[in-house]
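Shipment paperwork, digital attachment
Item: protein structure file
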Amino acid sequence: VQLQAFGGGLVQAGGSLRLSCAASGRTFSTYRMGWFRQAPGKEREFVAAIDWSGSTTYYTDSVKGRFTISRDNAKSTLSLQLNSLKPEDTAVYYCAATAGIGFPTSSTLYNYWGQGTLVTVSS
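Attachment content:
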């Protein structure tokens, strides 16, 4: 599966953005999907994941209650709604797909990656 993330931009603290990830191919619904982010000078970190159906989600503690991951299998699209943004959320955000089970938080367990979209939150 090929992935393309978009929707990033510059937003003030407290604002919102919606990231999207378009997937090609007919097997999108068979992958568990995740979002990661990488801030300048830092390692890539897990943000959120969602199961095949979209009924179960998992978040890292720092974004719980602020970010929402969702998917539309009919449109082969993954989304991440970012609310109450903070300057520390500034990073390049990547969507990723895994054929594995569970909700892996390690980037090494994801098979396919989008190119990333930059989110900048000003204070």
